[in-house]
Amino acid sequence: MKKIAIVAYSQSPCVSQAGASNEVELIMPRLREVFEQAGLGNAQDVDFVCSGSCDYLQGAAFAFVSGVDALGAVPPIQESHVEMDAAWALYESILKIRMGHAESALVYGFGKSSPGELPIVLSQQLDPYYLAPLWVDSISLAAMQARLMLDSGVISEADMASVVARSRKNALNNPKAQLASQVTVEELLAEDTFVAPLRRHDCCPISDGASAMIICSEEKAKDWGKPYALITGIDHRIETHNLGMRDLTDSTSTRAAAAGAGAGSGHIDVAELYAPFSHQEIILSRALGLREETQINPSGGVLAGNLMMASGLSRVGEVFNRIITGEATRGLAHATSGPCLQHNLVAVIEGPA
Amino acid sequence: MANNSAVLAAVVGIGQTKYQTKRGDVSIAGLVREAAVNALQDADLTFDDIDAVVIGKAPDMFEGVVMPECYLTDALGCNGKPMFRVHTAGSVGGSTALVAASHVQSGTFKRVLTVTFEKQSESNAMWALSSPQPFSVHLNAGAGGYFAPIIREYMRRSQAPYDAGIKVAVKDRLHGARNPLAHLHLPNITMKEVEESMMLWDPIRFLEACPSSDGACAMVIVSEDVAQQSPKPPAWIRGCAMRSEPTMYAGREEVSPQAGRDCAADVYKQAGVTNPRKDFDCAEVYVPFSWYEPMWLENLGFAPQGEGWKLTMEGATSLDEGGDIPWNCSGGVLCSNPIGASGMIRFAEAARQVRGDAGAHQVDGAKLALGHAYGGGAQFFSMWVVGAEKP
Question: What is the pTM of this model?
Fold first, then answer.
């Protein structure tokens, strides 16, 4: 399959409240930055644009329509939108390049989660007849998943706390992170539970922001003469919505997506995993068979800041950044959607040969 | 611009539900599954044969389910497979078909199931479209209120007779009377009846507006080698295009948007269409308010600027009057409007025509057809050209 080059990536700082900034104002600085990195002027200089966002975060139907205002789509452009994390907008853009309808694409995702109550909003993602009327929020579902893991002895609370401690520590080197600190497992375990067995720090924070990326064919990347990394494989899989039918302590869809993306055909220096809860990072790294050699979430991951609808794309961007700087030669990025890791995407990113 | 290296793809299965005000007999999952199973049966395939599912619908608030693809994966036999969700406003049904096609045209998959739906009776679309936004002008007049002034401007510029819209309303309802799946069946409708119906948003009367429907539409799109094994004739995808422009900008041409003209030019070029009125045998075009037929006849190049209404008045777009370029033989959006599916129904009905499988609304010997959808403030466009013959 044709390799796709990433030439530019930008993410806003994760902030707990973007205040009066609207979605267009969150997007525009990211677009300016990726155009500048790629040496482009605006959206007219790419062949295709695709974005990811969620109407329910903005509390309005057709929320993405205003996003088009950030693009300068005059004259009209080839543009599409997914009601999914922008990692899937990246996927759609890759299909467009593979089929030869575009050589380059701008991808962006944005979310302003602060005005609503995100865990409650996400309860309306559940089966509308049997589950949504119970208003089971996303944190409670994740807590049940963590409880299953603890009770079956797959993990301990200290394992979860060490994920958090590493995230906070790594985030000290990430100026875009919302939560960063030097904290020990003992200190974390001394805190009260929030939704047992989860403590507050086991859950990702609520964040506002956006991220953007420019991708293109490898030939185009060479034309542009900018440093680039290659997406050598990408795949995504969904599992049943019925939580009772899934083994919640495992992620079969992540494993299948990783196989589809060819993750196993080489070493993995770095993995950026979209794990909104600490125990989910353990599920994911086990499903992916990650070993000691792999540095997990050097950015701090989403426990340090979670831009809904953009965090998946940001995972790809974080791996790209490390390949460009030479810290890694081959990495894996993961994105998720749905309750308890229902839907998972895996991309493999490598430096050019 | 990019050179087209797309793998050839075709539609080999089409499934629709009956469209009606309220499908109280099925859940949302039951509704999409009904269309999906119909499409698979039409293709002589099963869920096991499908590599990936692409789903589309208009805003989640129309049913009150956030990202319903998570919940619908079981009903669509997608567990363990890739599930993709598209949302591009009213054009979404068309865009979803294009994204599904790109899953095959990119060489990534062989057999893709795509489904779009709306179950408007689960919620209240007017409410969903009217939630006030802190930084935006509050539009609470609905879609009709938005488009009415643009239609008036068209009438002023073109000097069209006042009853051109009425004629479209009658024509599409007579077409819809031939289609057993259509929501509205009004075989005895008259110009007088339309004219006397309540004025909703001047000049749009009640009978010049689309209904609000529940329903789903599905297609199976496959690669060339699979299509050749298909028991029924495939509809070959000859061109795909999308265009977007902002809702408002200085000097925006709202009557005949640039995005629509550019999108048509792109898709015609891919399909080798130079004279749409002559080259196409029929078209399924998104006409939710009657006057959009003459407006789109011009925007899509079927008629010179200012003369779209003449085709309508001459009966050129009417199956019943033996017109040379019938539009919306299925009855169109004016007969059935499950919003998220409405665009895909246009694409699917165009494919039914070139497969010779459109029943009582079949255009004899149709070989090439246009499917068209638009959305937002007439700013998002998606189109495809399907043919009976391979390119």
Answer: 0.97
